[in-house]
Amino acid sequence: NAQVLDAGQRATQIALDAGVQIGFGTDLMGSLETEQLSGLRLQAEAIGPHQTLRSATSINADLIGRPDLGRIVPGGVADLLLIEGNPLEDIAALADPSRPRSVWQAGTAVGGESHTQTGPTR
Asked: How much is the pLDDT for 85?
């Protein structure tokens, strides 16, 4: 497994160096759904947290031809995940499922911890 992981990390870096856009996704669901977060951690180890966050948001949107997704911009369509901590400094702030988080859709909290809405909805 260690050899496969190492080879995967090297392959990812080679692709990035060649200008290939690297997205993020898994096929895990059901009881394995939280294991997707391990994928974020592994990708961050390979290409860094900033590139990993771009892969999971704006690059994924670009790969499917939807520049209105994956960005917080006027006119954009987005759900937001609010977490405690800075994933650019510590990817575990995002990748650790035990960390506090909340999901917002169209300005309304829909999952995770309850938070009071203080801003406009869209």
From this structure: 93
**10-residue stretch averages of pLDDT, the chain, 122 residues long:** 87 91 85 84 90 93 92 84 93 90 86 50 38
- Cα–chain center distance at 92: 12
Q: Are 83 and 93 in contact (CB under 8 A)?
A: yes
Q: Give the length of the chain.
A: 122
Whether residue 114 contacts residue 102, with contact meaning beta carbons closer than 8 Å, is answered with: yes
Distance CA(20)–CA(61), nearest Å, equals 15
Tens of pLDDT along 27-42?
Answer: 878 888 778 888 889 8
- Phi and psi dihedrals of 92, rounded to 5? -60, -25
